[in-house]
Every structure is written in C-alpha cells, then in structure tokens.
Amino acid sequence: MISRLKNDNANGNRTLLVVSVMLATLMQALDTTIANVALPDMQGSLSATQDQVSWVLTSYIVAAAILTPVTGWLAGRLGRRRLLIIAVGGFTVASLLCGIATGIGEMVFYRVLQGVFGASLVPISQSLLLDAFPKEKHGAAMAMWGMGIMVGPILGPPLGGFLTQNYSWHWVFLINLPIGILALIGILASVKKDQPHERPLDGIGLGLLALGIGALQLFLDRGQGEDWFGSLEIQIEAALAFLALYTYALWWWRHREHSLLDLGLLKNANFAVGCALIFIVGIVLFATLALLPPYLSTLMNYPVLTIGLVLAPRGVGTMLSMMVVGRLLGRVDARGPILVGMGLMVMSLYGMTQFGPTASMSSIVWLGVIQGLGLGLVFVPISTVAYATLEPHQRTEAAGLFSLVRNIGSSVGISVVMTLLSRAGQINHAEIGARIPAFGAETTLLPPMWNPDTVTGAALLNAEVMRQSAAIGYLNDFKLMMLLTLVSMPLVLLMQSGKHPTGGSAGADAAAAH
Questions:
Q1: How would residue 370 be classed by pLDDT, with cut points 50, 70 and 90?
Q2: Which of 134, 385, 443, 451 registers the highest number of CB atoms within 10 A of its CB?
Q3: Inter-residue contact 11 to 150 (CB < 8 Å)
Q4: Is 23 strand, coil or helix?
Q5: Domain limits at 253?
Q6: CA dihedral sign, ordered 53, 57, 60, 63
Q7: What is the pLDDT at residue 486?
Q8: Domain holding 275: CATH number?
Q9: pTM for the complete prediction?
Q10: Is residue 7 scored above 60 in pLDDT?
C-alpha cells in the first residue's frame, strides 16, 4: 500500500509523512492500554493504594478527553505543523518523566501531561493525511493511519505484559522515546509549514466543554468502583456533565461563528452517521479488550504474557483488512465493506457468547482474528466517507469531534460491560447457590470434593459457583455487544455512497450533489 502513496506531494515526501504520522498515532494509541497490565507492579513500586494507582489510567484519559475539542482552535492559532511538533515532543518528554517517576503524585501529574500533549495527535495527524493526498487516495491514507489507531490498543496489553515481566514497568513508558524521536524527525522533514490564522478563543465554551467532558469521563471511569448513583461523588459528576454539555449546546447555538467546537458539523449526514458508527466501534473494540484479559486470567488461569499473545492475532486481522479495504475504497460502494465488517463483528461476538468457564485457545484466537478483520473493514471506510462531503478547512475540527466521540464510546463501553459483569456475578451467584442443596441425599449428585458439609468442600463449591456465575456475566456482555452491533447496521444505509463511477474519491458523488 505504501507504494501507492509515493507520488509527488505538496506537503513533502508522502511515504515519510505516512510513516511519521503512523508512529505518532501508534505511540498515543498504545498508551491508552499499555499501562493496564503494569498497574500491580506500579502500585508496589510507587507505594500507592489501589484507588490511587487507578488514577494512572484515569488522569490520562480525562486530560486527553478535555483537550481534544481544543485541537481545532490550537491548530488555527499555531498552525498544524507547529502543533504536531509540540504534541509529539511534549508527549515524548512526558513519557520519559513517567518512566522515571518515583511517587504516585509525580506519576499522575506526568500522565496528565501525556494526556494534554497526546490529545492533538490523532485529529491533527488525520487531517494532515486527508489534505496531503487527493481524494481518490483517501482510503489508502486512512488505512495506513488507522493501523496505529486500531492496532495500538490491541497490542498495548501484550507489549506491556512483555516489558513488565522481562524488564520493569518503567519500560512501559520509556518505549515511547525512540518512537517519539523518530516520529518527530520525520514530521520535521515531511510536513511543510502552514500559516496560522487569528481565531479568538471561546473561553466560555472551553470552560463548559472542559467541565462537561471531564465530569463525564470521571463519571464513567469511577462509577463502578463508587457504586454509581449510590455515591454523592458520582451524582455530582453526572449532574455537572449533563448541565455543562447542555449549556454548551445552547452557547454554541447563540455564538456559532466563534464557537470552540462546531456542533453544526453534525448537520452533514455522512459525518453524523460516521460519528454514530465510530461510537459503536469504540464500544466494541475497547469493551472487548476490557473483558477478555480478566476472563482469560480468572477463569482460564492464563499468565499475563500468554494473554497478550492470545489477543495479539486480532491486531493482525485488523491490519490485513485495513490494507485490503484501503485499496478497494473509491472503486466500490463504501457501505459494502462497512456492512461486511459489522457482520464479521457480529459473528465473532456470537462465537464469544458460546464460551463457558473455559474455552479453547484456538477458538479465542480465531474469533479475535475475525473481529479484527471486521473492525478494520469498518474503521477505514467510516473514517474516509465521514469527511468526504466536508470542506477542507473543516477537517481538523471535524477530526477532533470524531476522535472525541470514539473516545467517549470506549469509555461508555468499558463502564457498561464492567458494571453489568459485576452485578451479573452477584445475581448469578445467588441464583445458582439457591439451587444447591445444603444437605440431604441430593448432595450425592455433587463430586465428593464439593461436599458442602465440610469446610473445604463448601469453599471449593463456592469457588466453582463464583466461577460459573462470572462466566455467565461475560457471556451476557458479549451478547449485549453483538446485539448493539446488529441493531446499528441499518445506520450504514443512511450514508451516501462512497463509490465514484470512474474510481474517484469516496463520497465524490455526494459532494457534487451538494
């Protein structure tokens, strides 16, 4: 595919531009999941409680979410090239600081810095690639760019597990240094300077968005641990999120000319449907990645490194399908690959609903590959067609909104499935336990080692009931995601065709119609 991107380019060498942007997005995407498996080691090394060490993840997510909507304004004031250089350089330095942190306070602060600098990486890199290539090559460009976005979170856990197990948790962050340096050199060499333009800062809009998005992310991230609306903290965060975001919508309506985040972009049908579909993709991708590691660890007793190796093939599936669909876009109706990809996602999730307390390693691997193939087929056409009918000057701001919606989808997905998993485990344990006789002749139906009349037998029986209860909870979550993907498939038909009669750009017909 890279060979298709080697033509002359006004923004410098295309191949170098693609590689540099991929490295930058891969670095940011990796850090959304790579630190997860290292948390236990960090907790001991940094002398932190479990609640404190969870802020290593939360602080990064919240900071990135709050700053993502500001990308459009920053790009206008600084220029996209300068903003990307600052973002990559700042993220790399923040990664170094995380790797040498000696206390939990330092670590959380440096993770906030990572989130601040990383927020602009994805939308800026996406808009740069869209502008750097003619429309007929947007599919290929988005396929290359999308590999970092989609494969990064998938490869994060296995890479994090390998580095933590064989070296130390510090390398989970220090691995970003060579990636960031190479990306920075490539950006300096391949991206031409662009002229910044004066744009007043919508301070009130920024405050409302920061408050609303920050409160929403905290609500989603901490809800399960704080018993949701049984906690005053969660009630306050939910109220702040709703009021701030609703107030921003009213503010935007009255000050559309100078608003920080242009909600009017959602009037574009392709972009609005694209946002809805990428929200679903965010849910399925990150919720599945949140469910499978604990499933394999607690029910299958897989060690961390084995879990990573079992999950890694889904990344291979994603890369393969992205390379294929990148070549097809512009020649076929983009809705076709999206529907096929969503069908593969449904198929894989249906296969996961057939798991039990145990599942064969081969089925886990192959279903992961099928899901990866589906995600790749969906992500690239959506990312291409969503921007096809937008004006070039709208792309940076649209990319920020697109990334924000995907990130919120991932947060919603993780929160929902983990909450349902926890509650299902409790309910199923009570239901199954009520059907097990405590004494009498029926206990002969149980294996002797599960005899509830003995202390050891009762403990072993309770452990098995908990195991079966948890398995039911996992299967219900997989079923929920399968149904969500299935019912969202008709949305694809609302998008305009991405096929050009002469093999031209995705969405060119739609653009001409307008």
A1: very high
A2: 385
A3: no
A4: helix
A5: 202-259
A6: negative
A7: 94
A8: 1.20.1250.20
A9: 0.77
A10: no
